[in-house]
Amino acid sequence: MKKIALLGAGGKMGRRLALNLKDGPWQVDHVEVNPDARARVEKDLGITCVPADNALAAADGILMAVPDALIGKIAQGFIERVKPGCAIVMLDAAAPHAGELPKRDDVTYFISHPCHPSIFKHEPTAERHADFFGGIAPQAIVCALMQGPEEHYEQCEAVAKAIYAPVTVSHRVTVEQMAILEPGLSETIGATLVTALRQATDAAVAKGVPKAAAWDFMLGHLGIELALLFEQYPGQFSDGAKLAIAKAMPRLFRDDWLHVLEPAAITESVKDICNPPR
Which CATH superfamily is domain 3-173 in? Predict the structure, then answer.
C-alpha cells in the first residue's frame, strides 16, 4: 500500500488522521467535500485537498473518516471507481456489521477502532496523563479484517497504528466481536452506566451534599472499585460493600440486562446507528 485516499480530511477525526499520516511512508490524497472544512484544513494544516474522483481512482487504500451513518452511502457511491485489490479502511464496525457495505469481492474491508488510553495510566508528563482520547498518551487498538487477502491485514494494521499513534498493542478481533465491544460494551453498557453514575452524583448534590465533596467521593471510590474489579490492585470489597451490592443489584438491574450483548440486540443497535430515526 503506497497511496491512500483520506475521505473526510477536514472533519474533526479526519484532521487528526491527516496530521498523523503526514510523516508516514504513504502518499496521501486528502478529500473533503465541504468547502468550509476544506478551506480550514488547507489553511491550518497546509494540506491541499484533491478531487474525490482523482484520489479514489489512484488509491491503494481508502481511509474513511466519515460519520457511521454515511459510511455505507458513501461507499456505495464510489465502490465501482476503485481498482481491484484496494483496501477500504473504516474506523467503526457499525456499518460493516449492519450490512451497509456494497458487495465487491475484489476489494478489502478492514476496520480499526481505538481503545483510548486506559483509566489506569501513570504517564510521565501532565499532557500525556490528561489525555483521555488518545493521540498523546499510548493506547491499545482493535482491528478486524472483514474480507480480503490475509497479507492485507498487516498493511492495514500499519495504517491503523499510524493514525492512532502511539499504540501499545493491536488486538485482532472479528467484525462481530468489534461490534460487541462497540456499541455493545462501550456505549450501550459503559456509557449508559457512567451516565447513571453522573445522575446519581447529581441526586446526592440535590439532597444537600456539597458538589465538590460529592465529586471527590464518587470519583475516588470509583478509582479503587474499578482497580479491585479489573485486577489492578490486590484485595476485594469489604463485607459491607458486598452486602450493599447484593441488595442493590436486583433493584437497579433487570435479571436479563446482559441481553444487550446478544447478537440480535447488537445487530439492532448497529442498524439504528447507521439509520438513525428522523
Answer: NAD(P)-binding Rossmann-like Domain (3.40.50.720)
